[in-house]
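Researcher: Good morning. I'm working through a list of sequences from a screen, and I'd like to move beyond sequence-only analysis. For each chain I'm collecting a predicted structure so we can compare shapes side by side. This is the next one on the list. No need for commentary yet; just the structure.
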Amino acid sequence: MSLLHLENVVKRLGTDSEERRAFRLRIPSFTLEQGAEIVIWGESGSGKTTLLNLIAGIVAPDEGSITLRSTDITKLSEAKRDRFRSANIGFVYQIFNLLQGLTALENVLTATMFAAKDNMTRQQAQERGIMLLERLGLEHKLHRRPRELSVGEQQRVSVARALINKPALILADEPTASVDARNASEVIDTMRDLAETDNTAILTITHDAAVRAMFPQSIAIDDILQR
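Model: Good morning. Structure tokens for this chain:
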């Protein structure tokens, strides 16, 4: 079953001038199925992060349609895109974006504040947040603040935050860039395991061949974009 579909998407980056033509990112067609686990790989600056930001509705395309769960997000206002993203997409950032004044558990629960979910009470959200952090090996770090956590532990908190709302889709931007190989493998394996439980699709981007090997399917960014 199709979860996500991009059709004739164009995003212009930069401005036209005599000296430099604007870079245009073009995606003729791209489809992601429900529950799929795909890694998109390519060199830095090849358009991978822009692709994720378009899918998430963080930036809007200049042309084309981006349909997630039968909703064309390009037709939504910025405020409605934000609400839709909170309810349907979990984002694992390369830079973790954790709030320094909150504990690990509180950082995870911040994601539930903006999601229009009627099927999870505050108590259920807290229980799920604790479960996710425990599954990620942070059972003794629930009440630690980011500055009291290692880089790898902070990345695990960001993964738990992305999963808390049981999203239909996880978008991960270089999710292992800040951790060593052992922790990278543990983070990816746990993220995939937890996502499979909820039939959540994962779309991650990387330039790391080791991360590519952890996923059942990989696609080169140059096979998606039209240069």
